[in-house]
Amino acid sequence: MRSLGRPWIEYWKQKPLLHWLWWSIGFFAATVLVVGFLGGDRDYISFRAGVTVAVIAAIPLIGVTALMYIIADRETRRAYNLRLLLVALLIVIKYTWEYVS
User: What is the pTM of this model?
Assistant: First the structure.
């Protein structure tokens, strides 16, 4: 088990892309929460503006994810491909279920 002292800090220094990914996830989640809060029943912002803000907030997340995929070694890239395939399969199942129902 990894200790929470000095080695943990060194681990984060060695993984800057992972650090950027977590910041991007946090930024995107905070943006979506604010847009959802302001655009829900309160109607301070329109649906179109909310979607535009969410898409703009997703750009750093997509960029860091793409950079991690490009830099990844063979085994890690295979794991990424498996995850992408699983998500695509779940989307197909969802839309097929909605079509059949």
Answer: 0.69
